[in-house]
Structures are given as structure tokens and as C-alpha cells.
Amino acid sequence: MTSDILQFLAALLASSVEMVEALTIVLAVGVTRSWRPALLGVGAGLIALAIVVVAFGPSLVNYVPIDALRVTIGTLLLIFGLQWLRKAVLRSSSLKAKHNEAQIYEDEVRMLRREGKDPDSFDWTGFTVAFKGVFLEGLEVAFIVLTFGTNEGRFDIPIYGATVGLILVVGTGLVVHKPLSRVPENTIKYAVGLLLSAFGTFWAGEGVGVEWTLQDPTIVALVGVYAAVSAALVWYLKPQAGLAPAFEEPTA
Amino acid sequence: MRYVKGFGLFWWDFIVGDSIVLAGGVLTLLGVGYVLAMNDVGLVEFVVPAGVIVTLVLSLPRRR
User: Fold this and answer.
1) Chain A CB within 8 Å of residue B23 CB
2) Beta-carbon neighbour count of residue A239 at 10 Å?
3) Which residue of A has its CA nearest to B13?
4) Interface pTM (ipTM) of the complex?
5) Can you say how many angstroms the Cα of residue A107 is from the centroid of all Cα atoms in its chain?
6) Which residue among B27, B37, B56 places its CB closest to the CB of A86?
7) For residues A55 and B53, what is the distance between their CA atoms, to the nearest angstrom?
8) Min Cα–Cα distance to chain A from B1, Å
């Protein structure tokens, strides 16, 4: 009985860590870009995950090249996160004009109309980021459940643990997404840049063979280090703002 | 053909975006990280984040 409870808690905690990582990415995409591509990305990620899990079953652990996936997804997230972080540093140091969403929306709609494109066209970038986050983290949850289940010879307890974890994490997401949407957009984008860069560094690093001593808490340490460095960069660059006009770049 | 071009442009924009320094820097850094990790260099877990920071700094405009 005690061993069952411990196995349940271990599966719950381990899978919750992975689900929180996926939730962070989905919330980031939903709050900063739009909820439609974020939620469609979640749906597509879950479908792809279900297909992989059903197709391979318990032998999944032997077939899916998890390190190759970590490198691919981690590299893309790191590049994407750094692009946002770079823009956030430039905006915070006033070297780049701050986001004015209403103005940007008007400009984008005008530009798309001029080019003959539909201004309501689908946001593939938001979709792709949400899809990758859910797919990779979902695979890791599947690995956790399969590893616990295979070791103990029964899958029900780790599945219960992961399911309770899923309910808790999704519940948390439903509660926090509203307050998050009230935070100024430039601040959110700064935070998202930090988070994606940290996740990307962690996953891509794991994929190329880096063994993080702190394991998952490394992500928190990376966020702290990147936040400190970017704040120092803003402080260093700010004096330039008076010398040069704020320049515009394509928006993210 | 239009869709192939659109698909290629999406990935180019997604990966390269506004700064080719970031994409090039990250790919180079991960290559270096792989070599260091394969040779059991203990400091690789500090080299990779440090390289990320250097890449970010290099992508920013110089002080005039």
C-alpha cells in the first residue's frame, strides 16, 4: 500500500513538472499572440501524441529518439525565445519603439490588405510553438508513466498519478490565464522571451548530451541568470537611446 | 509551388527572424556543446548558457 502511494505521488509530481512546462508555453502563446492557434496547437499536439502512444504502446521508450526531439524542439524554442528577448531588451532600453497593439493591428491589417492577404489568416507561429511544447512534454509524461508502469508491472497507479497531475495543472492554467492577460504586453513578452530561452537551453542542452546537475530546477536558474543579464544589457544600452531614434522591426 | 515557397518562408522567418546572428550563434553553440559533452568536459553545463548570453549580446546593436 505504501509503495502504491509513493508510486502514485512520484508519477503525479514527475508528470506535473512536465505538464507545467507545457502549460507555461501554451499560456505564453495564448496571452501574447492569440488563444485560437494556441489551443489548436494543444489539440494537434495531443492528437499526435495519442497516435504515437497508441502505435508504439509500452515499447515507445525503445523507439522514439527522445534526444533528437529534444535537440530539434529545444533549438527552435531557444532561437525563438532569444528573438523575443532581444526585442524586449531593445524595447526596454528605448532603442526600439514599444508595442502599441492597437496601432500595430491597424498597420498589419492595412499591410495585409495591400498585399491581398487575409488579415484574419491563421497564426502558424503560435500554433507551432504550442504544438511542440505539448508534444514534447506529453511524450515525457508518457515516458514517465511507461517507465513506472514497466518497472512495477502495472500501469494503473502511474496513470492515476498523471491524470490527477493533468487535472491540477489544467485547473491552474484556467485560474491564472485571466490575471496574466492584464499584465502589460511588453512585460509579458519580456517574460516569455526569458522562459522560452531557458526551456530551449535546457532541452537542446539535454539533447546534445549536457547533464544538468540541478536537473529540472536548472530551468528556474537559467531564467534567473538570463533575467539578470538582460537587465544589465538594458542598463548598458539605455544611454544610446538619446543618440538614436527608436527603430522599428517586424513585430513578434 | 506557392505552398512550398510559403512553407519555406515560414520556417526561414521562424528560425532566422530579425537576426541571423541568433540562429547562427545557437546552432554553432549547440555544435560546440555536443563536442564538449561527448568528450565529458565537465563545464559544458556552464558553457552552453554562457554561449547563449554571448549570442544575445552579439545580436544587439553596438554602443556608438
Assistant:
1) yes
2) 10
3) A125
4) 0.89
5) 28
6) B56
7) 41
8) 17
